[in-house]
Each structure stands twice: as C-alpha cells, then as structure tokens.
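Lab notebook, bench 4. Still working through the backlog of constructs that have no structural model yet. Next entry is a single chain of 484 residues. Request: give me the structure tokens for it.
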Amino acid sequence: MNNLQSIQYFLPELLIVQLALSIIILDLLSLKRWVNICVYIGLGCSALLLCQLSSPIDGFHIFNGMLINDSFSYYFKWIILISTASIIVISNYSKELDREYSVEFNAMILFVLLGMFLMTNSIDLLMIYLSIELVSIPSYVLAGILKNDKKSNEASLKYVIFGSFASGLMLFGLSWLYGISGSTNIYDIYNSLALVESPYMIYISLMLILVGFGYKISMAPLHYWTPDVYEGSPTVVTAFFSVAPKAAGFAILIRTFSILFTDANSLSVNTFPIHNVNWSLVVAVLSAITMSIGNLLALKQDNVKRMLAYSTISHVGFMLMAFSTTSVEGNIGIMFYLAMYMFMNLSAFFMVIHVENNFNVKNIEDWSGIGYKSPVLSIFMVLSLVSLAGLPPTSGFVGKVYLFRTLFATEQFYWLGIVAILNSVISLYYYFKIVKSMYFSEKVIEEKENIQAPVYTLIVLFSAQNILFYMYWSDLYNYIKGLF
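Model written out:
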C-alpha cells in the first residue's frame, strides 16, 4: 500500500504528532492554560480514531511495507494509550513536577507515545530502530526533568549512557541482518535467514538485537539502569516507565523474534527456533536470572520506588518465561498479563504519588500509620500489592496462572516453573513490608491528608480491576485469543 493510501490507517499517530506540536505552539503564544484541555481532547480523539480502525488478524502492510496494521498492534496500542492518558492526568497533581515545565513534559510524553505506537507495528529494520529511538530520546529528558534535583540529573545521565550503549549494539545486530539479506523488511530477511547454513551468523544478530530489546524491557543483565532511573526520576515518570514502554518493548520483541527467528515466520502458530538456533533456552535462562535478581534485590530496598523498580524487573522475568516457549499460548499469556499488570502497577504507583504529595515520605518505614491516616486508599493499595504478589482473589493470580499454564502445557522448561514458583514466594516478603509499615507500626503521621479527586478516582478505579478481572477474566482472555 502506497503512502497516500496508508494515511487513513495512520490517523491516530498523525493526531498525536499534531497534538504535540499544538501544545508547543500554545506555550509560545502564552496560552498555557489551554494546554491541558487540548491534550485531553486530543487523546480522546485518538482513542476514537483507534476504535474506528480496521485491524484484521493477519494484517496488511502500509507505507510500502514499513508498518503493518493488524490486531496484535491494535491491542498493544490500547494498553499504551490507557496507561499514557492516566499518567498525563496524574501528572497535573504531582507536587514533584515544576508547573513551569508542564508543556515540555506533556510534549515529551506524546512523542514517546508516538514512538511506542510505531514500535507495535514496525516490520522494517529502519522503523524498528527509529521507533525505539523515538521512545528513548524523550525518555532521557523525562528522567531528568527535575533540573535542580541531583538524583534526577544522575538518573538521566545513567539512562543516556546505558541506552546509547544498548542502542549501538542493537543497531549493529540490525545491520548484520541487512548484510545477510540485502533487505530491511523482516519478512524478506526471514527468507534469507532460512538459506543461511551457519547458525552462528544468526546467533550473532539475534543476541545483539536481544540486547536492545532487553534493555527496553529491563531484562537482566541489562537491568542496571532501572533502579537508579526509577528512584531519581519524578514518581509520575517512573510510573510511566514501568508500564507503557514495557508493553511496547514486548510487542516489538514478540513480533520480531516470532517472524525472524522461528521456522513458521508467523505470530499465529506454534513455532520452533529457526535452524536449531536454540534461543528459547537462552531466553528461559535469562527469564530465571531476571526474576531472581529482581526479587532478591528487592528484599534489601528501603526506598519504595526502588523496591517497585526491582518488582518491575521480576515481572518482566515472569513474562519472559512464557515467551521462552515460542508458542501462541505464550504470546496470549503475555498480552493478558500485561493488561493485569498495567492496572495493578499503576494503581500502586499512583498511591505512592498520593503519599508523597500528602506526607512527603519516600522510604518504606516512613509509611508507618498511613493505613489509619488514609484508610480507604490504603485498602486499595493492599489490594494492588496482593495482586502484584500473585495471590488470589486478584487478577495478578489469574495472570500468573496463565503464564505457568503456558510453560507446563508446552512441556518445556519445568525447572523454570520451579524457579518462578520460588520467586513468587520471595516476592510476598517485600510487598508485605509496605503493608506491615502501613498497619503495624507505632509511628503516627500528623500531616493532614488532602484528597485530590482525580488521583483518588484513578487509584480506586485501577485497583478495583484487580477484583473485577479475577471474577470476569474469561472475556478478555477469549478476546486476546481471537486476535490470533
């Protein structure tokens, strides 16, 4: 499909570009008071355009084969859009952010949103690299948006250094594929890889590309940036990093590896690694390392944001467990879990923002007595933590059941299932450290709580999904299953 014909299927992305440029112009014209209204209306219109898009299961190529419009990308775009919209709403009530830079913050978020949309449906090496960079570069700015905060500056600098290194390695891996095939389209590259006799050539490109993708999703041993960046960034930015880029990262990881490095060249059938290049075993080992590092290091953390950063790493490990099976059921399990994870993780971070706004505390021990000072929201925080731990009756339990089910149904890597079960038990300790501090500490907080309706509503609404999807999860799972 040529460029002109493709525009009708690219309207949500075009609107995001126009929206980002519009709020910058409004700021230049000293009309900053209209920025929030413009952003809310623009995101609402993007959601409407996304609803009206036709997204067939097999999909069709747009912009001369640079992108693909299919149901797989459609699902991920909704997760990314919902999480981004909620972050923009919450950002208006965060005391950390300087109102002077609110326009720049919103513009950067929108550019990242555009990059994440492109990550979900890129099928060309150039678009894969450009979309990842479009997410990464504004993210470096967001991490250091607190200009007078040394930790924020440190977070931004570390993010840039690690990101540049991972990006360079990934670009070398992509260029290796181009050298083998002479094409940048991943479907054409697959046809060339099928003719390659030496598996080591495929291993080299695969491992280098995995470095770039693994960095985006905080996979060990590429996770080192995550705790420092999460702790130093504003909490609202940390909440954003913990969900939306992770979803986009898994979207591009699943599509690229399922098409390039499997024997079926497809997302919709069970596959095996190409040419006996057993990368699924590599992913399984990395999954075990990722979840173990995330959980074990979280045990020693006193800072809430740093603890949740390691928690994010451990959840990535659980999702990689399903990805290592190279099966359709594994992809469905990851997509299902990401929806659950979005609600339970964002609700926890929104509660952290509420506590920081009202009580100015950052460490777990400083949460003492919050369960009595903010009784309603604390109950929902406990619900989110229980869901993150994967205990019933919450959606986190259902999501993990499907991740484990994928592993045992495909009869692969039973040892990884044992590692995952042990890690689930370990995670109970550090999640309930917060609960213990909230309800079983003698310290009494004297500050008065100031309830902000949007923050309160989003905490309750997102936390309630942990119960809702525990009781009515089958419709969502069947919908995702229908996408394949």
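Notes after review: The beta strands are 60-62, 67-69. The chain is about 75% helix and 0% strand. Flag for follow-up if needed.
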